[in-house]
Design goal:
The longest helix has 15 residues. The chain has one domain. The chain is built from three helices and two strands; from the N terminus they run H-E-H-E-H. A two-stranded parallel ribbon has the order 1-2. The mean pLDDT is 97. It is flat and about 35 Å long. By secondary structure, the chain is an alpha+beta fold.
């Protein structure tokens, strides 16, 4: 239930979703990415190499996001 209960409705309201994290943060975001894909929720995943939850991770993630939405 919740926001992800209806994959088609979610995907129509959110045409692009990017999940990101730093490599040092662990695998929980990658697992969430896979769970959402299995549920039919479209999303991309980016893991910033050799970083944790820090500014460099956010800068790299913003770059990845911008490259996808401004194609």
């Amino acid at each position: 239930n919740g926001i992800f209960a209806d994959a088609d409705k979610f995907n129509s309201h959110f045409p692009y979703m990017l999940l990101t994290c730093g490599e040092a943060e662990g695998t929980h975001i990658a697992k969430m990415h896979d769970i959402l894909l299995d549920a039919g929720i479209k999303n991309d995943y980016y893991c910033s190499p050799k970083t944790a939850h820090e500014w460099l991770t956010w800068r790299r993630s913003l770059r990845e996001f911008a490259m996808k939405i401004f194609k």
